[in-house]
Every structure is written in C-alpha cells, then in structure tokens.
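Run log, item B.
One chain of 345 residues. Sequence copied directly from the ordering sheet:
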Amino acid sequence: MRRYSFPKVDLHLHLDGSMLPETAWELALERGIPMPADTLEEFRSFIIVTADCRSVNEYLKRFEMPLSILQDQPALTRVARELVELLAAQGLAYAEIRFAPQLHTRKGLTQRQAIEAVLQGVREGAANCPTIGIGVLLCAMSVGPETVNEAENLLTVELARDFLGQGVAGIDLAGAEGIVPLENFAPVFARARELGVPFTCHAGDSQGPDTVKAALDFGTKRIGHGHHIALDRALCARAIRDHVTLEICPTSNIQCETQPSYEAHPLRMLIDLGVACTINTDNMILSDIDLDQEYDHCLHEMGLSYADLIRCNINSVRASFMDEASKAALIDELLGCLQALPGKI
C-alpha cells in the first residue's frame, strides 16, 4: 500500500538530473564516453549528490556527465521513456519534465531534433503507462557571464510554440542564478508572451528575493524554487495577490545549501502566509530522492500535515500547464481525498 494515496504531481523535474544510473552507465559504455568510476556501484556513488556539496554551482557540475551522454536521439528517447515509466511506477498522476534542448546539440543534433527525441520517449512511456499525464517544458538557459544566450533561447521559445499541444507544455529559464542579471532575459519572456507559450522561471534559490521580483515583472505565475521570497513580506503579498505559485524542491535546497536544513526551510511559513506552494523533486537521481521521500521530510521535519500535502498538490494542478478538463478532474479527486481525512483537517 502506498504511503500517500492521493494523486501526486511533480511540476519541477529535470530530465538530465533524473536518468537512472544503470542507464547512464550502459549508454556511456556504448558510446565510449570515459567514466569516472570502474564499476556501476562506484558510478552510482559518483553521480548522486553527497553531503559535501556546498553550493548550487557545485550541484550543477553533476549535470556534466548526464549531458555528455544525452547527445543523440536514441539516448534522449530512452531516458525520457524510462523517466515516465518510473514516475508512473511511483504513483504520480501528472508531471512536467523539463530539459534544455540547446544543451543536447554538441554532437550534431539540432534543438528541434532533441525535442523530437524526448517527445518520442514521452509518448512511448505514456503508451506503456496510461495512468500518468506528462507535459514537457523546454528550458532556455543562463549560461555564464559572456552572453545571455539570446539567439539559442529565442529559438527554444519558437520551438516551444511549434510543439505546443504536441507534448510540449511551456518553457522555463534555468541555469546558474546571479551570473547574468535576470532582467537580461526579458526578451525571452516577452517573445513567449507574444506566442502564447506558458512559462515558469527559476528564481529566488541561490539568489535573494530580487530575482523573484524580476521574474514576476516578466509576468510569470510560477517560480522555480522561489523560497527566498520569504525574506520579503511585501513580495509575498504580491505573489498572493497575483496568484503566483512556488515550485519548492526541499531536498535540492538543502543539498545546494540554499537553505540550512529541512527544519529551517521557510515552506511552512510561506504556506501560513498564504503563498501557493508545491512540492517537487528537482533531480530525482542526482538528489537520490522521490516525491514520497520529499513528503516524508515535509511531514516529519518541516511541520506540514497530511492535509497540507494534499493542498500543495491542488496548488500543483492549478498551476500546471495541463488542459482545463484534466485539471478539473484531478482537483475534484484531490478535494475528495481532503474531505475524506479524519476530522477533515
């Protein structure tokens, strides 16, 4: 019997951070990619983020190995299919899987081909697991101090429009915060608005609430991470007023040391203030976490109740980029779970 019997939703999940170690090992050996370990078990230990990780940038370095592997269509298709199957096996009702197509073009793929490969894998996984709904988010990237990567990012937005409704659900801006001012990416989000492409934006994780404000100024209604908004009560009030939802990833925040501990994480405070929060895994394999384990931390270390978990999933459905009929059905099911709790907590 599952520990959490309500429909579960993960809105913030990176494809390249959620590749099974066994698959990564096999694909790397097939492609002659040098490995940092001699055995699968050693490789598994290498790829999973450990307690000595000291920053977001150090955490992001763990993506280099998965990215070196995911540079051809068969690899992308397989990893996407396996992730959908894994999520379904974990009992998720819906997930939005994100990846940056421009990071998968090192060996000749175009962004379009990378997207097609991932969507093929998602279709195959969904065919095998019809109980789960999947949306794909295409990430524009903040890649470093030399450039805002505008041409590649604008192409990502254009391609999101081309594939919207065919598996792609929206876009995101990902990468290291604080190297390039978030305001520099205004043209990316302006173009998304012009084309009618839904969007979310990483902000307020390794940087302070000012990055959340910049993202809100773009018009986003979803913030990837965003927990540092807790440092600015006026900004919290704006988020509540404008119906903004935070994609909270507790374990990732602890591993990256953007929060000192589960107990000190502001999720409980944000919920009490009335900010719409969701609970997500970020990178299941790199972080060695699944959604049930995130819920365990929320219950036992972060002060949430079982009812809070259901409410966070209702927030997830409302903020998701799924179609309205699917939203209504999932919300009805979650409300039924909430009403069925002893005492209707």
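Observations after the first pass:
- Strands lie at 8-14, 92-99, 133-142, 168-175, 201-203, 222-225, 245-248, 276-279.
- The two ends are 22 Å apart (CA to CA).
Flagged for discussion on Thursday.
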